[in-house]
Amino acid sequence: MLIAGAIVGAVAGAALIFANPLIGPGDGRIDDLDRALRYDLPEAAIVLTHSQPAFVPVRPDGVEELWERTVRKSALGLIRLSSSDGSPAIASRVLVPSERTELLTAGVIVDDVWLVTLPGEGSLYVLGESNVWPVAKDTLVSVSLLRRAFRGPRDYVATAGLAPDGRALVVGATGEFANREGRAVERYRIESFTRDKGFGGVSAELRFVLDPLQADGAG
Predict the structure, then answer these.
(1) Is residue 35 a contact partner of residue 180, using CB atoms and an 8 Å limit?
(2) Containing domain of residue 148, as a range?
(3) How do residues 82-93 score in pLDDT, each as one tens digit?
(4) pLDDT of the residue at 14
């Protein structure tokens, strides 16, 4: 009975982790986010480095990976983005595993910080948390571990905070964005994933909105 109970408990726990609706992203609404910056991975990555060599390769070839103990769980990137009208943008990005990660209640949470510069307009910070568990569940778990076929293409909203509504915070830094605040959401579209080649055809967009600039110039 003890063995049977342990087996049933383990299966129930695994099923709860795998299908738990509590560990999805935050507010995925994007209709009110009027600016969109789009990019494709890995093509848009000027530099991408981390410590995991398998499913997301570092760029460019030969760039040193993050091997030191204090940073080896992080990822750093320099990314080219473009607006809907084709205007370019550039972003530096840091992702660090969060202490809030809890599979039964929160998911796999990553602290996600951007510094985005739009030439001729200014720069802004995006301060957020991303829940990467839905992506990991459909790729690393289902395909790599359980040997199932990836059911794509699929769309994912990764953003899960820091704003109370579950979206990321935007803080204007320079130019037209200075002294303004807003919200942001990042969305991914994954075309394919295989055990041998990893991700294929990943496109993404960072959508954001800033509060109107007040008459005195303050946000």
Answers:
(1) no
(2) 2-210
(3) 988 888 999 999
(4) 43
Whole-angstrom distance, CA of residue 14 vs CA of residue 18: 6
Q: How far is CA 133 from the centre of its chain?
A: 10
Lowest mean pLDDT among 122-126, 139-143, 173-177: 139-143
**What is the distance between the alpha carbons of residues 136 and 55, in angstroms, rounded to a whole number?**
11
User: Has residue 80 got a pLDDT over 90?
Assistant: yes
Both ends of the chain: CA-CA distance in Å?
64
pLDDT at residue number 206: 92
Average pLDDT, the chain: 77
Determine, yes or no, domain membership for 219: no
- The span from the CA of 115 to the CA of 9, in Å, is 45
If one counts the domains in the chain, the total is 1
Q: Looking at the domain assignment, is residue 184 inside a domain? A: yes
Contact 166, 152 (CB under 8 A): no
| DSSP codes joined into one string, 168-182 | EEEEEEEETTTT-EE
**Does residue 115 lie within any of the structural domains?**
yes
Q: List the one residue out of 189, 187, 185 whose CA is nearest residue 166.
A: 185
Helix residue spans in the chain (DSSP H): 2-19, 133-136
* Inside any domain, residue 136: yes
Residue 22: pLDDT over 60? no
